[in-house]
Specification:
Subcellular location: Cell membrane
Number of strands: 13
Organism: Polaribacter atrinae
Main location: membrane
Radius of gyration: 44 Å
Keywords: Cell membrane, Membrane, Signal, Transmembrane, Transmembrane helix
Largest sheet: 5 strands, antiparallel
Strand content: 5-15%
Helix content: 55-70%
Strand order of the largest sheet: 9-8-7-6-10
Protein name: Mechanosensitive ion channel protein MscS
Shape: elongated
Oligomer: single chain
Distance between the termini: 130 Å
Length: about 550
């Protein structure tokens, strides 16, 4: 009896001690623990849980506290108390560095968080305000109406599940399958119409990708329906956690697949566009962009999956950034080459198959990669130029020329009469005009100076064709015509020589050539040579 009296005396003391231990809101961990602990079935005391709600009456606070837990349970959001900070002055690092708050699930449920008010931590005003809309989103009104219609027999348990839950799960799966079939037809119809609008023609490869896209999109629609409807079955937190984890993983995998296929469709359409453009540098950009976009989709999807498994991607990205910076410092040449590649694709100083001169390198551009550019020289050897150096060089893109310029000097003997020099210049001009591969409106043939051993006649012409082989053939025909003109006129080409003057002996003839400067003969020779040149090239002249 004495022990019983002591128990009655000490019981209020034990209760007060228990409240002081349990009801604690000095830090985020204590507040969340207090809220969840007193709403468990074996420690159910909603009045104590409601103390985490500030500024409401006790009844309202109890209602809000219960709904917060039901929303978390319904979405399968398991609070890992080991990760909740115990620092009473904890500051949010998500975007409010000067704000004392802690968000329980930043990615999946950012509206629910605790904040410091005075010396204690409470559920935020935003959380209390939005909990009603969140609750209705998780548990729609029609579900609440249907639950009131469930008979007593529907609450009988089979394998720890109530009969109405099993029936509702079966009906939800059947309805989800019907939604999948309908969504698949609608998705394929819309995607096919969209493809016709974009490409304006029927492409077999694009159509195959469109068909593959319709399937995962319709599955995503079905998964969205299951995500919205499953909380209404009121399964336990553990069941909801695993179900929603599986649904979210499946949804993320499908989204990765959809974006990969979208990248394939977009790059296929872009490839068809580049095939119609003049330059081939865009063609080289297609595989590079395809690899880049594919990598971004995979990395983004992997980060999303890590978030679902509770990995803090913010810290991981920060660590990767620091590691990436260190790696970049250790591989500056690679980074420079990557930047050079970007500059080449932005500036487009040349295209694939252009003939360029870059420093000592002369040749045809064959490939532009991430790190370097391949240039094939005239002797078919390959130059591998780092893009960082190529972007800094002065590039002479001969592939962008409108015409091929040819400039040379013809040396005539110093004893050539002025009349024959004029005749020779006139004849060369007429040959250039008659030549089918030269520009007749832009040329220069002039007696320009006196060389060491010859009178210099400059010939400056522009060939129409940009092809190297055709240019050489055109030069050949021009040279042959000039040589024939010189032979018929009696004009000799000079070569390096030394003239020695000696006394002419009686009855000895000098070595100097005799020039015929008869004007009628000169005109006849020029007309004949030009006429013969035209006869040798009848098809080119007529064209």
């Amino acid at each position: 009896m004495k022990n019983f009296l002591w128990l009655l005396v000490l019981l209020p003391t034990f209760t007060i001690a228990q409240d002081s231990i349990r009801v604690d809101m000095s830090n985020p961990h204590a507040t969340v623990y207090t809220h969840l602990y007193f709403l468990q079935s074996d420690s159910y005391q909603p009045k104590k849980a409601a103390k985490t709600i500030l500024g409401l009456s006790e009844d309202k606070a109890i209602e809000k506290a219960i709904k917060i837990k039901q929303v978390l349970d319904g979405k399968g959001l398991f609070v890992d108390l080991n990760k909740v900070p115990t620092n009473s002055n904890y500051k949010d690092s998500i975007g409010y560095s000067s704000y004392f708050r802690y968000v329980l699930f930043p990615e999946r449920m950012p509206q629910i968080y605790v904040e410091k008010i005075g010396d204690n931590w409470y559920y935020s005003t935003e959380t209390v305000t939005k909990i009603e809309s969140l609750y209705k989103e998780v548990y729609p009104w029609y579900i609440q109406k249907l639950q009131k219609l469930i008979p007593v027999s529907g609450h009988k348990k089979i394998l720890n599940l109530e009969l109405w839950q099993i029936t509702g799960l079966f009906l939800m799966l059947v309805l989800g399958y019907l939604i999948f079939l309908i969504a698949k037809r609608v998705a394929f119809f819309i995607l096919l119409k969209l493809q016709h609008q974009i490409t304006k023609n029927t492409n077999f490869e694009v159509n195959k990708v469109i068909k593959k896209l319709a399937h995962p999109i319709s599955l995503l629609v079905m998964l969205t329906f299951l995500d919205k409807a499953f909380p209404s079955l009121h399964f336990g937190l553990t069941t909801n956690t695993w179900v929603f984890l599986g649904l979210n993983i499946t949804e993320t995998v499908f989204w990765i697949y959809v974006f990969l296929k979208l990248v394939q469709v977009v790059m296929r359409i872009y490839a068809e566009f580049t095939e119609r453009t003049h330059g081939r540098l865009d063609d080289q950009l297609v595989p590079i962009l395809h690899s880049l976009l594919t990598g971004l989709v995979i990395v983004g999807g992997a980060l999303k999956l890590l978030v679902l498994f509770g990995v803090d991607t913010t810290a991981m990205i920060a660590g990767a950034t620091i590691g990436g910076l260190a790696f970049a410092l250790a591989s500056q040449d690679t980074v420079k080459n990557l930047i050079g590649t970007i500059m080449i694709f932005l500036d487009k100083p040349f295209h694939i198959e252009d003939w360029i001169e870059a420093g000592e390198v002369v040749g045809t551009v064959e490939r532009v990669g991430f790190r370097s550019t391949q240039v094939r020289a005239a002797d078919t050897s390959i130059y591998q130029i780092p893009n960082s150096k190529l972007s800094e060089l002065v590039i002479n893109n001969k592939g962008l020329r409108l015409f091929r310029r040819y400039n040379t000097n013809l040396g005539l003997r110093y004893d050539t009469p002025p009349e024959l020099i004029e005749a020779f210049v006139k004849g060369v001009r007429e040959i250039i005009i008659a030549h089918p591969e030269t520009r007749s409106d832009s040329y220069n043939v002039e007696f320009t100076g006196f060389g060491d051993s010859a009178l210099l006649v400059m010939v400056n012409v522009y060939f129409k064709s940009l092809t190297w082989g055709i240019e050489q053939s055109s030069k050949h025909r021009l040279h042959i015509a000039i040589v024939k003109l010189a032979k018929e006129l009696g004009v000799d080409f000079a070569f390096p020589s030394t003239t020695v003057t000696i006394e002419n002996f009686p009855e000895k003839k000098g070595l100097n050539p005799k020039y015929n400067i008869d004007k009628e003969r000169i005109d006849a020779v020029i007309t004949s040579v030009v006429s013969d040149f035209n006869k040798e090239n009848p098809s080119e002249t007529s064209s």
